[in-house]
Protein: tRNA N6-adenosine threonylcarbamoyltransferase
Organism: Sediminihabitans luteus
Amino acid sequence: MASGDPLVLGIETSCDETGVALVRGNDLLFDAVASSMDEHARYGGIIPEVASRAHLEAMVPTIERSLGEAGVSLDEVDAIAVTAGPGLVGPLTIGVSAAKSLAVALDKPLYGVNHVIGHAAVDQLVHGEFPERVMALVVSGGHSSLLLVDDVATSVTELGSTLDDAAGEAFDKVGRLLGLPYPGGPHIDRLAREGDPTAIRFPRGLTARKDQAEHAYDFSFSGLKTAVARWVETRQDAGEAFSLEDVAASFADAVADVLTAKTIAACQRHGVDTLVVGGGFSANSQLRDMAALRCAEAGIELRIPPIRYCTDNGAMIAALGSAVVRAGVAPSDLGIGVDSSMPLTTVTV
Ligand code: KG4
Ligand code: ZN
């Protein structure tokens, strides 16, 4: 462990997970997560008010658990990093308020950082410091973004994002129309493993030649979702039997195909030979298999952290905070607000 590096406490509350972690350099001391997902499942989506209240209740116990398990006291913490956006305003506000209180009480610097970039930065805790340039594909229920990372602490370029649904969101919506429980993503993944991905040729959004000028690295999944809905409705209306597994496999194949094809094209175009995949959707088997295959073919090193660091957590924010502090970036003002649609080029506010 690089004991000379500052000890950073990271706080994440952008959605339904209250995450608190302690990181020194690229070493994770402890990462505690409390989730309110069970409280949202019956609504079929995240209810911001319910999430905010859960964050408020979980915040102090989660901080205490993290410190206790890491065996450090609050006065040993050198800096506080917190998700300042993007995310849900109420939940973000709880985390930022907690972080500001700690910064004031401990007289330590505050760093309001970008959640999506945190999804990439966390990989440094697992696979070590990034090489000079990496490509990051961040895919979850809330985001699908392709980032060119020259320096995770200071220089990130957004090459593309989804124009409508995020990959996980598309899975959840298709899950709903297939009658699967929320969130539908993992259920479709499971069904897809039993089906034939070539059974139905679903559309690949924004891959036509005409889209290349403006949207080469953007994604669109809402047309695909509609195509699946139409295909299923047509069969149901005609009273025709069909294989749910084949629908799931063909749909999952379309999503994985577009995500990996565009990402690898971006790596080749920018001369990048390391790809980091993060976000909860990186659990998806079809994406993992296709990314592994296509990266191997293209000579690209694929880095995917274990799934507990891909879903929302405090380690990703502490990891990014650690990188930012080590890069000598100026701390955030104590008056910072939250930014629900923080641009992906902003690493620290
Ligand atoms: O990062 P995450 O935990 O929460 C945010 O959205 O920020 O990601 C959850 C999303 C959900 O949409 C969920 O259905 C999807 O990722 N997901 C999956 C799989 N595991 C999680 N989608 C497809 N296949 C999976 N194995
Ligand atoms: Zn996230």
The radius of gyration is 20 Å.
